[in-house]
Design brief:
The protein is of the alpha/beta class. It has eleven helices and 17 strands. It folds into two domains: 154 residues, NAD(P)-binding Rossmann-like Domain (Rossmann fold, 3-Layer(aba) Sandwich); 224 residues, Rossmann fold, CATH 3.40.50. Helices cover 33% and strands 23% of the residues. The protein binds thymidine-5'-diphosphate. Thymidine-5'-diphosphate (TYD) binds next to helix 9 and helix 11.
Amino acid sequence: MKKEFLDLGKQPLGNKFLSEEQFDTEFFYNLKVVFDEDTKLVSLKEFVRPEQIFDAEYPYWTSKSVPMIEHFKNTAVMLQDEFEIDKVLEIGSNDGTFIKNFRREDSVCVEPCGNFAEYTNKELKYKTYSEYWTTELSEEIKSSYGKFDLIYSANCISHINDLEDTFQAAANLLTGRGVFVFEDPSCLSVLKRNSYDQIYDEHPHLFSVTSLDNLLNNHGLELCRVDNLEVHGGSNRIFARLISDNPPEDSVIDNLKREEEFGLNDFETYVEFGKRVEKSKEDLLDILHKAKSDGKRVMTIGATCKSSIVFNYCGIDNNLIDYITDTTPTKINKMSPGKHIPIYDYNYFCENHPDYTYLLAWNHKNEIVKKESGKYKGRWITHTPKVRIHDTF
Ligand code: TYD
């Protein structure tokens, strides 16, 4: 049975940065979050159709982030060292940052966003199916390429509404010695960090290891290892294989135990999280209203999906935030979803330093703080794990 514990209100699509003429047709949905008592899975109550999100204008290019290039290179090297891999399939290959570390002739990609599929097919010359990941597609791939020793996916499986079909499709294509590896934000980290801004249209599910243990088993798969990662504020790299007689690594048992001890299997824990989210909203609004009544200028670094969720949930618009700055060319000179705060380029920020900078690309904190060290003299605002003003980092 699914039980609701959080209502983040009416929300636009978090990544749809827009121009003024698109305001009238902007799409909104109700962002409510539920906990499934049976599987222990956290999901959105109402899913958004993927065609509305993952189109040929999807703005996130993995290769624009140096730490993410390193992350995927290190991951590829680790997987090549530790597993016997003849053929690899990537689900949600984005701009090919991960798959580029494997030989073209051994690799197949699946990527529904047309801009990326065209780039990896034509520029990088990696075979890419520009389609959604389904059992039907897995059958088509199997008839052309056979099965795979590695199926890899980063920040994509939790984006897919129909998990039953997703896991069945993976099981279909895995060789006997094969491993299905996927990374997504960790439910435990989100609750510990109070980072409710990681729950939105593109992330219809928030995975605990426990929920995956339950779901994978229904499709002939089992957990064999879990790596806890720092990326995106705390992610889990899940390793699954076809059900076998071999025991899982200790990391599986450790993670399941840690989640149980924290209360991730109890609805009440999520209700408490919901209360902390409401308090976070109150505290943030207090700080922003005070800053404005003192005549201060406040801006935001990072036109992130996370910023869209926070601004729309808290009702923060251009009266409280003067502007957002972002380094992504396709976001610059557009407006933020829902609240329509202008987005300017990084030079504008350098020439118009505000009194307060609200760090909403908090997952890139180290990179940003390093870049601004010695230059930006104002104060910082953060909201994870608690709303705070920092004189310096
Ligand atoms: P991302 O990590 O994709 O967050 P989300 O999933 O919530 O959208 O986006 C990070 C954004 O931050 C991206 O648009 C680039 C921007 N950014 C800057 O503007 N300056 C920086 O120095 C860095 C590292 C990122």
